[in-house]
Amino acid sequence: MKTIQISPLDNVVVALHPIAKGEVIQAGELQVTALEDVPQGHKMSIKPIAQGENIVKYGFPIGHALADVQPGTWMHTHNVKTNLEGEMEYSYHPNITFPEKVEPETFQGFLRKDGRAAIRNEIWIIPTVGCVNDIAKKMVADNQDLVTGSIEGLYTFTHPFGCSQTGHDHAQTRKLLAALTRHPNAGAVLVLSLGCENLTHEQFLAELGDYDPDRVKFLTCQDVEDEFEAGRKLLEECAAFAGQFHRQPIPVSELVVGMKCGGSDGLSGITANPTVGRFSDMLGARGGSTVLTEVPEMFGAEGFLMDRCVNEEVFQKAVNMINGFKNYFISHNEVVYDNPSPGNKQGGITTLEDKSCGCVQKGGTAPIMDVIGYGDPVVTKGLNMLYGPGNDLVSATAMTAAGAHLILFTTGRGTPFGAPAPTLKIATNTQLAEKKAGWIDFNAGTVADGEPLEEAGKRLLDLVIEVASGKKTKAEEKGFREISIFKDGVVL
Fold first, then answer.
1. pLDDT score of 303 more than 80
2. Which of 2, 103, 451, 473 has the fewest CB within 10 Å, making it most exposed?
């Protein structure tokens, strides 16, 4: 199969493999001769399209034609333009289908004292300010001997913030770091401060709320003569606490899984993202939870999401989130459609609507049960939407802070990074999976060659259970872990 017409309403097909000029393509009952070369992942018209007429893909308009085109024309940034503008008014027309319940399998995880599940048992050092980043990194390097028994790693997540920030920006840093401190994959945490930063110890305690003093330790470097000696003692206490936990069977209904795409291409919305969508539906049917973010990459694809909100209250939260993010763009004098990236375009994504319609495929078909803010935890089972940008590191960090045990990351271009939570990379095409085997954990390119999405989704569910039970992702094997905090303010 050389091409796919995703919806019978579409006036373009997507090239699953490169199409040569003069090649005859079968699109349903139509036979179309390619008028020019069409790269893999790119679109080709299968009907005459007039100037100003919508280009339809996924059954939705993804932009309009800049000139009259004939069937067989390569449709991309040179002859297609977005339809997007600013804020919109939405109305709620519920179209909700709950997945049929399935008895959950189990994974081998860790059960925390507060009843939460975890898929890793690690010690984390959380710097409250960038000034202590190198101290934190040295503590990690010097104390690897504590990684024994059931303790699976000692890590720190450095960042440049925690001081010289004001207002909402400062509050977001505080909220994000406290949320990471609460993450269940951390069996114990050392919160590392300097002592004179804006993010004071008192502020952090207020943000953190109730905590177990056996699990969370604090060190202010300016208060001790030798921070490395003091840090060693506290890390030994952390190791003694975390070492009590051991893997045991836990239902997959306790899993929270973040869903992200980055370095997307024209196959993302056809192979990898729908595979993740099938997984999301399967996990939801088993009582588990998934998280969909990247709000700017919902612009233009709201039709896939809004009417699936479980009630009008959740619908209004979704409207406020999407229009609020559009206003965030506008308040910075930026257009809401300043996306996709150069790599996206090279891979076949033409407009933000094109990217968005592919992006939201990760959400499957289940109802949207809740919409949560940046730094807030997932509290409702099922599919959740999270306020956050499309940036890979920022959004993956936000999903981790929301409680995601692991991140499913689809990519058509490839990327090596890892979030604090295990980050499982899913290739949209087989060429990438074979070329970057050191990055990619799962190949969804097989869907382009005929594997049913249900089978691919079940393969992914099986792999998630393996990862939740201790199998390391490629990023974990290399020690790739980092955070990035959503920033929107001045630096003093």
1. no
2. 103
